[in-house]
Design the sequence.
């Protein structure tokens, strides 16, 4: 891993461009705010993580209602000793009973069993990579309403990769 001070906005832009065809095809508004900051990370692997998370936002969207305004929002905030990147969507959400297990290897949960394309590896890999890069990753969600993934970046070049 090449962990160095990196422009978060550039990585977010690359991930947006990578997913633009699916975002357009699914009529999803993609909003980005306050990502013009520096974080300590490996740019290549963070882009991989963001692609996985955006892909999940697209995959687990509301399908049935054509009038429903689908949205993905990425925003960063200064939280004292760390910078947080929030990836939020107004998709189908994660059932409360599945939340504690979403980072487990091969866990697909209720939503994954409904959609045939789920392997249970995406969030597992995201979690492992974040830990290896010295980042934190958390998920909050309400079934039927939203999911938010929060990645925490330490504010100095002394990270604790695991």
Sequence:
């Amino acid at each position: 891993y090449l962990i160095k001070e990196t422009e978060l906005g550039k990585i977010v832009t690359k991930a947006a461009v990578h997913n633009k065809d699916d975002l357009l095809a699914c009529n999803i508004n993609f909003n980005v705010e306050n990502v013009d900051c520096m974080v300590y990370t490996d740019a290549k692997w963070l882009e991989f993580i963001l692609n996985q998370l955006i892909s999940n936002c697209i995959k687990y969207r509301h399908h049935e209602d054509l009038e429903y305004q689908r949205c993905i929002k990425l925003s960063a905030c200064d939280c004292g000793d760390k910078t947080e990147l929030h990836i939020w969507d107004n998709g189908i959400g994660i059932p409360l009973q599945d939340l504690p297990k979403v980072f487990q290897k091969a866990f697909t949960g209720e939503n994954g069993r409904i959609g045939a394309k789920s392997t249970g590896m995406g969030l597992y890999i995201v979690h492992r990579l974040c830990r290896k890069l010295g980042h934190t990753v958390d998920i909050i969600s309400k079934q039927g309403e939203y999911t938010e993934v929060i990645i925490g970046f330490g504010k100095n070049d002394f990270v604790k990769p695991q």
Notes: The chain has a mean pLDDT of 91. The beta strands are 4-7, 28-33, 38-41, 70-78, 82-89, 136-142, 146-154. Residues 8-25 form the longest helix (18 residues).
